[in-house]
């Protein structure tokens, strides 16, 4: 299943980022003569209530959703990595302060925290990346902190500290390789979660604003005509499902490998 997920994810990325160079139908042109046209050879995914080509809109909207998901997950992951290593390595008061900070953020449900932040800011791609990053680093930080705490108690790390080896060298030479598996596992989960967060915000009208689009805004556009034109919402929803499903399968596989290595060690 892991190989299928990898190949499918690669295929989706190729379709979303490469196909628009060859499929030159505009995602913005209105066509009053083809309003809510069903999928056909002329419009493979049909058209929406303004006669716009759904396939073209899914491709352009997918670029926005994937860019937001990947960049926000990357930023959140490195924030969580930095905070988690700091807490687990230095311990003591530093660790207690960071734990309080993490618990404070986790006190508020993540999605409602997203809603609260976005409702006061005019959303754009950059704003959504920043907001999702700010609200998505806690899980990574907790996992990295726990693992860093265990690593810092290992004898070879204590010997390095007694030998006055610099903290930077210890972290990059010893912590980084040991934390890489858990970092990758959490990162894949974060990408999927970030895409879903952006889609949910856009679906509620708090995300990407027209004329820009994402899979979430396409879902929102189709909800008013779902009874008579299922394709308007179905195809963006299908792509969201496929991407998140693939990422979950990849995460599960990486987690199995990591657990197997731990058992062997």
TrEMBL record:
Belongs to the binding-protein-dependent transport system permease family. Its main location: membrane. Residues 62-251 form the ABC transmembrane type-1 domain. Gene3D superfamilies: MetI-like. GO terms for biological process: transmembrane transport. The chain crosses the membrane at residues 5-23, 66-90, 97-120, 126-144, 178-208, 228-248. It is found in: Cell membrane. It is a multi-pass membrane protein. InterPro entries: BP-dependent_transpt_permease, MetI-like, MetI-like_sf. Keywords: Cell membrane, Membrane, Transmembrane, Transmembrane helix, Transport. GO terms for cellular component: plasma membrane. PANTHER family: D,D-DIPEPTIDE TRANSPORT SYSTEM PERMEASE PROTEIN DDPC-RELATED (PTHR43386:SF1), OLIGOPEPTIDE TRANSPORT SYSTEM PERMEASE PROTEIN APPC (PTHR43386). This is ABC transporter permease. It holds the Pfam family BPD_transp_1.
């Amino acid at each position: 299943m892991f190989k299928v997920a990898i190949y499918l994810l690669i295929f989706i990325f190729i379709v979303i980022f490469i196909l628009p160079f060859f499929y030159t139908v505009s995602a913005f042109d209105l066509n009053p003569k083809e309003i809510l046209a069903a999928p056909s050879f002329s419009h493979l995914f049909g058209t929406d209530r303004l006669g716009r080509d759904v396939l073209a809109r899914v491709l352009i909207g997918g670029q926005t959703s994937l860019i937001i998901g990947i960049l926000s997950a990357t930023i959140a992951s490195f924030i969580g990595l930095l905070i988690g290593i700091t807490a687990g390595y230095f311990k003591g008061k530093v660790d207690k302060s960071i734990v309080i900070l993490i618990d404070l953020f986790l006190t508020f449900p993540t999605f409602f925290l997203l809603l609260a932040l976005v409702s006061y800011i005019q959303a754009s791609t950059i704003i959504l990346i920043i907001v999702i990053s700010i609200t998505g680093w806690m899980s990574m930080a907790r996992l990295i902190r726990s693992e860093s705490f265990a690593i810092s108690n290992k004898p070879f790390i204590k010997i390095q500290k007694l030998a006055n080896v610099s903290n930077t060298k210890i972290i990059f030479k010893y912590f980084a390789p040991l934390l890489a598996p858990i970092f990758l596992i959490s990162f894949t989960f974060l990408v999927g979660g970030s895409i879903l967060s952006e889609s949910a915000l856009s679906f509620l009208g708090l995300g990407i604003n027209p004329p820009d689009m994402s899979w979430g805004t396409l879902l929102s556009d189709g909800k008013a005509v779902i009874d008579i034109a299922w394709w308007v919402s179905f195809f963006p929803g299908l792509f969201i499902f496929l991407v998140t499903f693939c990422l979950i399968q990849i995460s599960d596989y990486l987690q199995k490998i990591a657990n197997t290595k731990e058992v062997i060690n």
